Amino acid sequence: MDFVTATYRLRCSADEAPRLAQHIALEQTVEVPEELIDSPELRDAVVGRVRSVTPCADRAETFLAVIDYPADLAGAHASQLWNLLYGNISLKRHVRLVDLVLPATLHAQYRGPRFGIAGVRKLLGVEGRPLLATALKPRGSSPERLAELAAAFAAGGGDFVKDDHNLVDPDFETFRRRVELCQSAVETAHVGSDRSTLYAPNLSVPLADLDRAAEFLVRRGVRGALIAPMLLGFETVQRLTATYPLVWMAHPTFSGCYFHDPDHGVDPAILLGQWFRLIGCDATIFPNHGGRFTFTAAECADIANAARRPDGDVAPCWPAPAGGMSFERLPEMAAAYGADAMFLIGGALLGASTNLQISTQRFAEQIAACFPQSRQVAPMANDHLSACEMPLPQSAAALEHLAFQAGFRWDGRSAVAYKPNGSLPFKDVARTELIGRHGEQTAFDVRYFEIAPGGYSSLEKHAHTHVVIGLRGTGMLDSRGEQRTIRPFDIGYVPPLAVHQLHNRGDEPFGFLCIVDHNRDRPQAP
Predict the structure, then answer these.
(1) Are strands 444-456 and 375-376 parallel, antiparallel or unpaired?
(2) Could you tell me if 468 and 368 lie in one domain?
(3) Residues 103 and 127 in one domain
(4) Are residues 307 and 364 in the same domain?
(5) In a domain, 16, yes or no
(6) How far is residue 227's CA from residue 162's CA, in Å, rounded to a whole number?
(7) Which of 230, 320, 448, 498 could form a disulfide with 285 if both were Cys (CB 3.0 to 4.6 A apart)?
(8) How far apart, in whole angstroms, are the C-alpha atoms of residue 372 and residue 95?
(9) What CATH code is carried by the domain that includes residue 10?
(10) Do 342 and 440 reside in the same domain of the chain?
(11) Do 361 and 336 belong together in one domain?
(12) Longest dimension (CA), the chain
């Protein structure tokens, strides 16, 4: 049996600690007194198991209780996992979650950041130093004024500009116009240069507009978004980060109620560092020590470590300390956080000069001086990484004619691995990228797939649509439980989130064109 292992810090007497630990194990699982559990099978399969209760060496009347929960109780969704970890006991005093370990089977449900530290560096063309970020504020400024700030920050060498988290719009059209202005501003600032600045609008819209807004960002070429996981909900964040190829930045608003009582809540490193990273955030904002909030230097170091430490196949995400980051403190912050950090500087940057471009340039030069080995390279072109495959190298100029050759091949194109990471099972499938990954300015990709006799594609689902056009042989399209034969020039349509698979049960190769969105979500197991 697999277990979720949670460690709680309890403030109580030595006599009470074992009883409190056992109470937590029962309350978080069966929610009945121990004497009412008369089934050995129930006890073994459901009841949490107290592994140990030990005194804290540095805190009087404080104990660490390690409890194993059967992983099945976490279900297949994030909200139930947190209900298991800290649901009812969040209503009790003097119980704090200080460590969390997920088994491999459960950990695999959380794929982590799409871009992470390495991917964002490629988008920006920045190596070997922290990123310089700022926020567009204050609320009440006109869209034109916010765009002016974004342009000045980009022109001064800033790397990442986000909306302030309370920068919201009364309707979708106002949101669209403001984003258009700010995105155009950062793009225009770098015309003719080899630099890039990422803009992350605040995705705070009514739930009915959430996907519409995210889709607009992707199609407009915006490469980032700011979200508040504690307001949106963990599962909504997990779905957004898995579906839309954006650099997702998490804001900590509404999380403070978990942190300020040292004897209650959840350690910041678990929530802001480990968890936000697991549900797909590429950067996590947290209050820097010495600012207007109360985080200590040790807490900030723990958050940064949780965001970046090795964690299976999950990419590290950017720790983004914010607040109290003056020009004079930059060397101190550089030493504390190292190169892989995003310095989110608001008031100190915006108020350092009447000319934001000059102020930004001054801060950027100071950061670079702290990391003399840093370098600027050509940023990745503004075509988002596909979630299920890395983009092929783009040619200097897209070919405008692909000549067809015998054997179902095309000049200038060669077959590549179907799914290089092997994340979902398949057999004897080859893929040729025809249009969309070689410099063409398209909103779609055209690929040719060929399945050998007896082969099959992955059984999967995803939010984007497929159009399948048969070219060679005969195959079977299984979509939403219905099977349809695909012969040459037949067309099949796979709607969003339909579980589907293609088979070749014949004696000759089955070849087909597949047309998908250029910017698309990663395939998921059914």
Answers:
(1) unpaired
(2) no
(3) no
(4) yes
(5) yes
(6) 10
(7) 320
(8) 46
(9) 3.30.70.150
(10) no
(11) yes
(12) 81
CA-atom Rg of the chain in angstroms = 26
Q: Same structural domain for residues 171 and 319?
A: yes
Which domain, by its residues, includes 419? 404-517
What's the predicted TM-score (pTM) here?
0.75
Give Cβ neighbours of residue 414 (< 8 Å, ≥ 6 apart).
432
Among 107, 129, 150, where does a domain finish?
A: 107
One pLDDT digit (tens) per residue for the chain, 526 residues = 899 999 999 999 999 999 999 999 999 999 888 777 878 888 888 999 999 999 998 888 999 999 999 999 998 789 999 999 999 999 999 999 999 999 998 998 998 999 999 999 999 999 999 999 999 999 999 999 999 999 999 999 999 999 999 999 999 999 999 999 999 999 999 887 888 999 999 999 999 999 999 989 988 889 999 999 999 999 999 999 988 889 999 999 999 999 989 999 999 999 999 999 999 999 999 999 988 888 999 999 999 999 999 998 899 999 999 988 899 999 999 999 999 999 999 888 877 667 999 999 999 999 999 999 999 888 876 543 333 333 333 333 457 788 998 889 998 788 877 875 556 889 999 999 899 877 777 888 999 999 999 999 999 988 788 899 999 999 999 998 899 999 999 999 999 888 999 999 999 999 999 999 887 777 888 8
Q: Classify residue 420: in a domain, yes or no.
A: yes
| Burial readout 87-111 (b: 16 or more C-beta within 10 A, e: otherwise) | eebbeeebbbbbebebbeebbebbb
In a domain, 162, yes or no: yes
Write the CATH number for 372.
3.20.20.110
CB 273 within 8 A of CB 304: yes
d(CA 404, CA 402): 6
CA atoms within 13 A on the CB side of 121: 19
SS3 label, residue 324:
coil
> What are the C-alpha distances in Å from 496 to residues 448, 457, 464, 499?
20, 17, 5, 9
Is the distance from CB of 165 to CB of 140 less than 8 angstroms?
A: no
Contact 350, 137 (CB under 8 A): yes
Give the domain-ending residue among 52, 77, 107. Answer: 107
Distance CA 328, CA 440 (A): 46
Distance, CA of 521 to CA of 453 (rounded, Å): 29
Same domain, 471 and 447: yes
DSSP 8-state symbol, 390: P
Cα–Cα dist 162/61, whole Å: 44
Q: Name the residue among 165, 160, 163 with its Cα closest to residue 129.
A: 160
Q: Would you say residue 223 lies in a domain?
A: no
Active site residues: 514
Please give the structure tokens belonging to residue 366: 């100071």
Q: Do both 156 and 298 map to the same domain?
A: yes
